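User: Hi! Is it possible to get a structure for several chains at once, not just one? Here's what I have:
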Amino acid sequence: MQTTIPIFFLAMMGVEYLLLIPFSRKLKLLRREELAIFAYLVSSIIFGTVSYILGFVYKQNNMLFNNCMTVIQFIILNGFFYLATKSPVTRKVLLVLGAAGLAIFALDLALWEGPRRANSIFATYRLLLFLAFGIVLFFQLLKDEKLIEQSIYMNSLPLFWFNAGLFVFLCGSFVRTLTNNFIQSGMITGTYDSYRPIMRVVRDIVDAGGIIQFFLFYIGLTKIKKAR
Amino acid sequence: MTLFEMILVGTLVMLLLGILIVVLVILQQKQVIQYKLKLRDKDLEIQKERLVAVLQGQESERKRIAEDLHDEVGAQLSALKLNLNGLQQKADNGQKEQIRETKDFTDTIIQQLRFISQSLHPTTLENLGLSEALDSFSSLMNKNKQIPIHFRTDNSQYKVEREKALNIYRVVQELINNILKHAGASQVVISYQSTPSLLTLRVEDDGNGKLVDSLHESKQKTGHLGLKNIESRLNIIGGNITFVRNSPRGTVAEIKVENYQPVI
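Assistant: Yes, the chains can be modeled jointly so their relative placement is included. Here is the combined structure:
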């Protein structure tokens, strides 16, 4: 089976590595929710690099590692939304749904899909949860009276750009995450071999979303000095 | 369309949707802020209109009082003086001295009355213009107060719009009052300069320089109505004032008003 070099994926990884430099330089200025984004960035780098080495270089099944990293990122992003959200009720809901997510992950890994397959159920749950909380965070910023009274545009806030980056990436990867397991089954059995080019395009679009995400993170990072 | 093509389209649509939502969120918040800013501008405009109405009311009331003082009380005092003249001629030597003192006292009252009347409503401002009105004001103050006030002008003949002239005149009046009350100055110099587009007035004193500090305090606190009044009046006519320390001592207040000439 011939494998093509995932250019967009490698470009995304390159951007991630580059982003580490400005993030590390501003580490002392970061608030707790921004530190969560930094942790997410580091986890993404580990995720991408190890996953690439396992999958593309050694041609091994990297699904167990992917699933584990997905749950680690789930915890990190849960922390990000928890710290960024102001409403105590929303925070409680986030904690409860976070705990439910961990339970779903355990069930998905142990019973439903197994360690050698993409855990689509948990990944989709994670995605829907963070999309919803991304919208909640947008509303929080939109309705922030302090911002409106002081005529502060939300695009001057790092939090907005971090949330925007996550939101764009989560939107872009929604359909693929939802169908990941199903497609994977077809690919393994060879049923969908003729559709590989289309799926490569899908993968590239998702990775392009990832590149956009990190660019938006960078914009957010540039706003940190101005905001402090 | 196959399932895979649908996944492709779905992924693309979702990515674009995500970007679109982010853009819409930014635009929505910008719109809200711009709307609020517009409301605030309108509010400021209404406040300005109210302030103008209050000041106009104040001016017309001052004018009425000044005219009443001049026409009624002034005329009565002049009649009193004439009566005293008549009495002086008929009176014997002992009473003549007493009547003369009363006449002198009446003269002082008439002079004071003119000063109050001029301060309330400067007729020179309407008849001769701002520069002459300030000159006349300085002369009047010199007659009545201890501190000499010198007026210097570049003799430019540019006309000043009536409302602006009145507000500038009031600002200078307020500044001089402040200097007399708080600065402990031994002299004041008013300089008048004008170009076709800019009118500059400098009020310099050699006092304790406390006016600079009191301006900074008044910006932070409520109170010190005089300085607030100065700012409000200049705000209405689109002028500004700066206070700096004079060398070697005292304060320099510089008033600048652009486009001060009447529109023909």
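Chain B touches chain A at residues 2, 4-5, 7-8, 10-12, 14-15, 17-19, 21-22, 25-26, 28-30, 32-33, 36-37 (CB under 8 Å). The radius of gyration of chain B is 30 Å.

User: Great, thank you!
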